[in-house]
Structures are given as C-alpha cells and as structure tokens.
Amino acid sequence: MMKVDAHDLRTNETDDRGRIYLGTEYANKRVTVAVVEVESNHPDEEELAAAYREASESAETLAEDWDEASGEAWAGLDE
Q: Under a CB-based contact definition with an 8 Å cutoff, are residues 17 and 23 in contact?
C-alpha cells in the first residue's frame, strides 16, 4: 500500500459527471480517495438574490436616465 504525505495532497476539478482524472502514475493500482472538502462553483441563493437586486436597481436607474435623455432628445427635435 502506498502512503501519501500531506504535501502530496492535490485539489482537482471534477468533470460534469463528478469524475477526477488522477493521472497515469496510478494506472493498474488500487487507489483510495478521501474527499476532504467540496466547494460548489455555483452561487448560493443569497448571492443570487443580491445580484438580482443590484441588477434591478441598475435597470431602474438606467431606465430613468434613458427617459430623461429621451425627453431631451425629443424636445430638441421640436425646436
């Protein structure tokens, strides 16, 4: 059985099916893997809600600015 030193631990990304490629050095060997931590690469609900609020506020500000600029533009055409 091969022992692994702590400095040999690696962080790998999984594919879309949750698989990790370990490398050819492990070919034809039995490998025991321990999952120490799992991080999601998707934002949580609070982050999504905050981003939605921010985008909504930005859209409102943009709409107000556009309304003002549009009004000025139409007024300039009437002159």
A: no
In the block, residue with structure tokens 């999984």 = 14
Q: Which DSSP letter does residue 1 get?
A: -
Q: pTM value? A: 0.35
Q: What is the pLDDT of residue 2?
A: 64
* Contact between 21 and 31 (Cβ < 8 Å): no
- Cα 20 from chain centroid (whole Å): 20
Cα gap 33→23, rounded to integer Å:
13
Please give the Cα distance from 60 to 75 (Å, whole number): 23
